[in-house]
Every structure is written in C-alpha cells, then in structure tokens.
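Researcher: Predict the fold of precorrin-2 dehydrogenase.
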Amino acid sequence: MYIAFKLNNFIMIFVDTDIFIPIYLNLADFNVLIIGGGKVGTKRAISFAEHGAKVTVISLSFSDELLKNQDKINLLNENANELSEELLSRFDIIVTATNDKVLNSKLCSKAKQLRKLCNNPTNPEESNFIVPIYYTDNKLSIAVTTFGKSSLSSKYVLELIRENILSNNAIYNLIEAMGDVKDLLKDEIKDPSKRFTYYSKIFNDEIFRNYVNEGKIEQAINRAKVIINE
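Model: Structure tokens for precorrin-2 dehydrogenase follow.
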C-alpha cells in the first residue's frame, strides 16, 4: 500500500514494508545516480560500481575515497537543490544521500514520480527499494534488512546465519548436489511439471540426503538416478 501526502508542493510517497519483495539484480549497464558525496553516498557508489553499474555522483564536495575512484565513478560538481527532472530521467536507479533530509525526500519523491527506483537512506520508508546487508559467495547469497530500523541488527542476524548455518559444509554439499540433480533432470525428463516432482522427491530422499551430508556427491547423484528410474 502506498501512503501519499503533499509537503511543500511535493507528493511524499511512503511504502508499506509488506509489499517489498526481495530481488537480486544484475546491475551491468544500469545508470545509477548517487546524490551526495559523503559517507553514505560513497558507500553506495562504491558498492554499485563494484557490481557493474555505471555510477554518477553529484555533490558539491566528495570524499577522498570517491576522488580516488574517479576512473570507475563519474563525479559531477553540482548543487543537488538545482537538479532537473531531465537529469534525473537519465538514470535507472537513484540514491538520495545528502545531509539534508528534506531535500532527500523531495528528490526521492520526484524520482519515483518519474518511475525510477529510488533509495533514501535517511528515510527508508520513502524508498521503493532497499539496499540490504548481505553476504555472498560463488554458491550462495544471504540478504537481511530491518527496513531501516537498525543496520547493526541486520549485521548481527547475518553473522548468526553465517556462524550457525553456513558453517555447516553439508549446506554447500546440498547446493552442489541439487545443482547436479537439476542438470540431470533436464537431460532425462522433458516435462517441467514431472521434473519438479522428481526434484522434490530426490531432495527429500533419506538415502540421498545421507550421502550429501557425508560429502559423497557422486553416490548421491547415483541415488538420484535410481529414483528417476524407479
């Protein structure tokens, strides 16, 4: 649900957290605008650039880290109070990270009216997307958010997951084995609905899971073949 009201001739849009859906985006070739060159703006800019986005930062001053990364990030010395709709419309994703909360709200509201994805770190409930605290490796990614209430709590929850769940090698064995099972089923069974039935059956098979827990991936796949041919 969206809740909207006018403030100084700007339509303020607040988003009910119940309607957020987690989405992983490939940011390659996305045009991202960061408004604000301070600590938060720097963190967002570096992160987006590292993940393949074309990042521009607009500010009257820039952090040393941003200045050191001008080969990866475009820096524009402009007044955030004077940004036009035409300029905002050039970008796919906009982050309002100035030290002026009212300005951040106005800019994010304008961005959303232009149908852009906007994150306002100083007032997350005005955002239509959230940047979570996350961990990722080459097999698994975990993201946690408290919808702006406490980034420290998000970090704490993420560490609990890493220490108490991801530290178990059986989790990664299962991911590897089920990836192989998926490939096997694609080769053996053409009907997607039948593939899903077998996929679930194999996943829940006690013998298969015992092999996985012991790290015996080849035996686990052989067990999957037995199930498919039953």
